[in-house]
Structure formats: structure tokens, C-alpha cells
Fold these 2 entries.
Entry 1:
Amino acid sequence: MPTRLSVSTSTLKRRLAEEGTTFREVRESWLREQAIALLLDPTITISQVAADLAYGDLSNFSHAFKRWTGQSPREFRHTRGHPPDDLSRASPAGSGRRDQR
């Protein structure tokens, strides 16, 4: 990566430190954002998301995603990215009706 940016590794590390971050944090943030965007597309399988993000296997991707978001990729997709406490506002599964007030 430093060669693509035409800077030395030490310069890249120093500049990232000046911004209060590390290459690993930047990479993790990018991967998390990409994973979320891909998981919002129901036509892409979770296995394909893992492969697209260069994870060797689905298990490694699932562990990383849960570390980032607190939800498994399947849970995230099921709740469409809403935190678990938002489930109380959802209508009961399978009812097909919304709460009418």
C-alpha cells in the first residue's frame, strides 16, 4: 500500500498516527463498510460477501463481522442492520399486519 501512495512505510505510519489511527483501523473500517453495503443486497450470498472481501472462509468473515457490529451477518441481514433493541418495534413475524393505532 505505501508504494501505491508513493510514500515509505514509515511515512505512512507516521501520517496515520498524526491522524490518530493505524493502517489496521483504516482497513477494518473499510472492510466493515463494504460488508454492510454488500449484505444490504439480498441477491448476494453471505458466502459471496466473504469471498468478495478476500476472507479465506465464511467463519472468519462471520467472526469479524460480529466483532464489528455485534451481530452475525445473518442477524444483520434479518434485521436489515437495525440494532437488536429495535426488534421490539417490528410487527410479529409472519403476521403480515402492522400495528394499527
Entry 2:
Amino acid sequence: METITLQCPITVKAKVTEKFKTDMLHNLSRQIEKINAEVSHIEKDMKKVLAEQSTGDVQRVSMLLQRMEEEKQKRLSYRENIKNQITDTEELEVGAEVVQGTLQRLVEVKIGDTMPGIMNTELLVEDGKIIEMRD
């Protein structure tokens, strides 16, 4: 066997621009709005369950309220995480590079090829356009 095809990762990095920061902050704000709506909905449902408590099984109602509270706490925790991401995004300097994710590519390798050169491929993206490919 002279060659073999491997699936290798490509790191995708974004170059921070004002547009990048604005878009990220907008998306994060929308996520917080969605979470707030979900928390509000859960709280309304909890009040409704409490109001109807007298007609049902107390133990069942208690378990239901506990599950609803757990769901609410998950969302509140997620919201705090998003708030931290907003703070981090606001502190990004224009020109900095941030990792956005990983893609996969197929590479044909042969004996004598260097693995670091194959494995450390990066794409640099600025405002949605690839501006550099790095090995």
C-alpha cells in the first residue's frame, strides 16, 4: 500500500471584526430573550399547577413542581452561561482570532509525509469569507 486516505480535522477560526462582534452579541441576546420566555412560561405553568393543586394528588403535584423547577434552573444556568459569553465577546479585540469549530477533510497520505503538517490545518474566516488557509 503506497497511499491511504485519512479523514483529518480542519480548525475554523474567525478574525474578530466589529461586524463579527455585533453579529455574535445579537445572536447571544436573542438566545437570552428565548430563555427568558421559556422561564416565564415555566413559571406560569407552575402557578397554574399550584392553583389546581387542591383537585389533584399532592404527591404527584409535588413531583411535577419539582421537575418544573429543575427545568427552570437548567435554563437559568444556561442564561448565566450566555451572559458570560456576552462579556467575553465584548472584550474581544478587533483583529484577534477565535476558534469557531472544526470541519473534516479527506487527505491522501504516503510514507514520509509529516503528520503535524496534515493534522494542523486551519481556515481563517473574516466576515464569512475565507481569507487564509494555514498548514
